[in-house]
Design brief:
This protein has about 170 residues and is mainly alpha-helical. It has a domain of about 80 residues: Winged helix-like DNA-binding domain superfamily/Winged helix DNA-binding domain (Arc Repressor Mutant, subunit A), CATH 1.10.10.10. It is about 65% helix and about 10% strand. It has seven helices and three strands. Helix 2 runs antiparallel to helix 6 and helix 4 packs across helix 5. It is elongated.
Length: about 170
């Protein structure tokens, strides 16, 4: 007769598990499951941000410069006014001027006269700027795909649904 043995698979542990163990029972209102979720999301965000910064550095961009290129790429005609860019990127006009100056020196954007306002200027994405954005974004997408590759496609869908649910809970009015 063959005896069946139920063996619970050992779940791999990470540094967050160890940290949660160290917290112990000193905090009665601390839910260790919630703390684990928050610490893991924060840890992943930090690692993803570092990967993004490395990618952008390899392409000669800062994160803020990449966001400006991204914003121009999605703007009608791939142009925008400095004021519109400042508002969308939540920057002062001085900070926006510095950012545009740097990208213009690198040939990634150019200032053009606004055809609708003789006194106005529009910032336009150049071909080099569009290409730099595509290359840097594709490079990062490959890195992110490798990271997400730790999950099956089904798990990726499930995680997306769960994270969406958390995001929507923040977006709900109190």
């Amino acid at each position: 007769m063959i005896e069946t043995v139920n063996v619970k698979a050992e779940v791999a542990r990470d540094h967050v598990d160890k940290r949660l163990e160290e917290l112990g029972d000193d905090l009665p209102d601390l839910d260790l499951d919630v703390e684990g979720i928050v610490e893991r999301i924060q840890g992943l965000e930090k690692r993803l941000r570092q990967a993004m910064e490395e990618t952008l550095d390899d392409h000669g961009l800062s994160y803020g410069e990449w966001r400006l290129l991204c914003n121009l790429r999605s703007s009608h005609g791939r142009t925008s006014t400095p004021g519109e860019l400042s508002a969308k990127l939540e920057l002062s006009s001085g900070a926006m001027t510095n950012r545009i100056d740097r990208l213009e020196q690198d040939g990634l954007v150019e200032r053009r006269r606004d055809p609708d306002d003789r006194r106005g200027v529009r910032v336009a994405l150049t071909e080099a700027g569009a290409e730099t954005w595509v290359q840097s974004t594709n490079t990062q997408a490959i890195k992110e795909k490798l990271i997400a590759g730790a999950l099956t496609k089904s798990e990726q869908h499930q995680l997306n649904a769960l994270l969406r649910k958390l995001m929507l809970s923040f977006d709900e009015p109190s």
